[in-house]
Structure formats: structure tokens, C-alpha cells
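Re: guanosine-5'-diphosphate structure - here you go.
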Amino acid sequence: MNIKKYGFKDSLVKSKTNEIPARIITTYRDRYEIICDKGKGFAKLKTGSYYNNPNSIYPTIGDFVLIDWNDNGDSRIIETLKRESSFSRVDPSSDRQHEQLIAANFDYVFIMQSLNSNYNLQRIERYLTLSWQSGAIPVIILTKCDLVENYEKYLLEVESIAIGVNVYAISCKTGYGIENLKRYFKQGNTLVFLGSSGVGKSTLVNTLIGTKIMQTSEIREDDSRGRHTTTNRQLIMLPNGTMIIDTPGMRELGMWDVSEGLDKTFQDVEKHLGKCKFSDCSHINELGCRILEAIEQGELSRDRFSSYMKLRNEAKYNNDSENYLKEKNKKFKEISKYNKNNKTNKN
Ligand SMILES: Nc1nc2c(ncn2[C@@H]2O[C@H](COP(=O)(O)OP(=O)(O)O)[C@@H](O)[C@H]2O)c(=O)[nH]1
Ligand SMILES: [Mg+2]
């Protein structure tokens, strides 16, 4: 086994060391499955490096770590190496106070929706924000395009909100568009998929690899939702050397800190910010509000702006729930006052 096949780069290790680079392929409560030049094995965290060190970064799936290899039992993980990308969420067990890492070191995020009732632009905007924030490159894939007659319409719509992102429509049934995705399925690349159960993630992998490597599930046609197949937390390597990180945590990604993700996803919105007459403008009814002006003049879509505000508020909530609620209440009061005044004026 050569760890470089798993995407390891020498530049990840800063100084010469006898410790061996490894990649985390499965996580359990306090034990990890790893792969390294010696092969596959299990490992535990070295107490001195982790539990007694407040600044230590605990490893997650996909992380590269340095280990002391043990031929006869669990190896010891000494250090988590710097991540090039990661997904996190609010740790559900921490009362919204702590970040929990879900996956690390992936190159591409496949944002997948099927062209039936699963299609939802706001959800794509949410996934895009999370993906840009992660540090990896988002790719949007509209699956099952055989189910609609006018998939081009969907493509155009998604392209209009996904600035600088490749968008593909595919069908595993007819084979349409599959060839275009082969460029991402390369030796050493790590991919993660964001998409509801039943959109065709496993079918896509099987179609690209040419064998039934992943379990697929029949969908319930009544609500076009897939049945949940059991998922493990794991990094798997396909026969052609592409790696896929599959973890249930991906379904509950939260807006932890997404300021950069919002910047990139909503460039068209953010370019109008900071230009209002009042610096604390709430963009609801103020005179000299650049946002309201841009919407009025058709330079900015109202839907885009409300998606942006929704995600931004949610992120704020995760970071600073108390302040967020205060602000939100203030805003609601302003809105109802405004509506009331408007009514009075009209009467
Ligand atoms: N019509 C159509 N059905 C598809 C396509 N791709 C997958 N499916 C079906 O969608 C269902 C769910 O697929 P699966 O790959 O298990 O979804 P996953 O939960 O996202 O992994 C299965 O019944 C597939 O046969 C497609 O391109 N067209
Ligand atoms: Mg699946």
C-alpha cells in the first residue's frame, strides 16, 4: 500500500519524523480504522497528544494523521495534519456551543438533486454555501433528467444562482451526461455527496464504475423519497482509485461559520451591501436602502436576497443564538409597526 494513492502529499508534514502518515477511513467512539504504507489497521489517540492538550485537533473521517505503527495491536495517533477542506456542524450534544467535524480533505462536493419533487433551489443555495465554506470545489448534478422533458430549463435556472460552478444534468437510465463526470472520478481524488436519500448517488457511482459496487434502494414512487439504506461512517476507495466519504452526519450539516461560503455563493447580493444611506439599515423600509433599490430596478432578485438573509440569520443563530434572537425580535417589531402604519395610511 502506498499512502499517496490515498491522496497524501509530502508537503502535509512540516518536519522530518519517524512517525508514519496515515488516513482515517472509519471512526468509532474512541477508535479509528486507518490506512498507511503498512496496510490497514486500527488506532487510538495518544493521550499525551490529545486529551491533555487543549489545542489538539481531534481527527475525523478523511483526516491525514501521523501515527506510531503497532504490528501487534492498536497503533497510536500522534497528530492530526492540517486539513485542506472540512465539513462541520454544531455538535448536537453541546447545547449549540461547539463545532463538530464531519469529514475532512475532500476535493469536490457533489451537490445532487433529482429532477422530480426533490428539486429545490433554496436547498442548492444552502449546500453551495456549505461547500464553498468547506474549502473544496462544489459541482452541481441534477439527476434523473429522463424524468422531465425540459431539463434545460432547470439547468439554466440553477446556473443563474450558482456563480462559477459547473452544473450537469444526467441520467443513469439513459446514460446522458455521465461521460462529463468522469473527470472527477480519478485516482487520488476524494469526493463527498450532498443530497437526499433516493436522488441516485449510489446509482451514479455504479454507473461510472461499471459494477454494482454500492447498494441502491428502490424509491417509493408516491412521495419520490428514497428509503433509508443503512449508512456507515466511512471512506471507501473505488476500484479506479477515487475515494468517497460517506457519513450520515452529512444530512445534518449546520451553518456553523459560513461567512466565506456566503461571500462566494451570494456575490450578486453582497455587492449591494454596505451602500445604504444608514449603516444599520435593515433593508425593510428605509429610505436610501440600496438593496430595496436594486430589487426595485430588477438588478437583484427578491428571492435571492431572502435566501441570503435566511442563511445568514441561521448562521448567526448557530454562532450567537442569544443576540440573534434579540435582533430578530427587534426586526419583527419593526415589520409589524411598518405594516400597521401602512394600513393606517391607506385607510
Ligand atoms: N428514472 C431514473 N431513476 C434513477 C436514476 N438514477 C437512479 N434512479 C433510481 O432512483 C432510486 C434511488 O437510487 P439510489 O442510487 O439508491 O439513491 P441514493 O439513495 O441517492 O444512493 C433507485 O430506484 C434508482 O434505480 C435515473 O437516472 N433515472
Ligand atoms: Mg445510496
